[in-house]
Amino acid sequence: MELRHPDGRDDARALVRVHGLAWRAAYRDLLPAAVVDRIPVEAPEQSVTEWTERVERNRERFLVADVDGDVRGYARVTWGSETKPFVDADEAGLKEIYVHPDHWGEGIGTALLEAGFGLVPDRIETVKLEMLSGNTVGEAFYESRGFERVDTGEYEIAGESYPTAIYARSV
């Protein structure tokens, strides 16, 4: 497995697919089907263009897990002005980490997480993340890798507010 920065439209298309499949698998039992099914798996060209631009603006903060040319997961870390309000100035946020559900349990998420820690500036000592409450797969993953639940919040999806759990870990 190669961990690398994403590059170009093909990687953007793969990120949309991984994101959509992982999101649907993780949240199928937590959110209404109409909300879950709105997350695309096959990206229309406009979505590919948007993801390509998003990645190009923040390429150094994204990592993809590539196995023989197949993108199986990705992670994105943020710091500074790009973070959520619960992330302090001396902290970073794990904004996204998604692995294709067919490859859960293969160590891809752990590899992305550990490599993602290496992307943050040396001054950063803590990484925080937010996920929907009740995401038992996510809870088990993060807690087994040293994250602790430190707060709660809310996240709006399709006009509805859902409870979240905020986790933190020293790096």
Could you please describe the fold and organization of this structure?
It is a single chain. This protein is of the alpha+beta class. It has a single domain, classed as Aminopeptidase, CATH 3.40.630. It has helices spanning about 10-25, 35, 45-55, 110-115, 135-145; strands at about 1-5, 60-65, 70-80, 90-100, 125-130, 150-155, 160-170. It has a seven-stranded mixed sheet. Strand 2 and strand 3 (about 70-80) form a beta hairpin. The mean pLDDT is about 95.
Main sheet summary: 7 strands, mixed
Count helical runs.
Answer: 5
Could you tell me the mean pLDDT? 93
Distance between the termini: 23 Å
**From the helix content, strand content and strand pairing, which structural class follows?**
alpha+beta
Helix content: 25-40%
Question: What's the CATH architecture name?
Answer: 3-Layer(aba) Sandwich
Order of helices and strands: EHHHEEEHEHEE
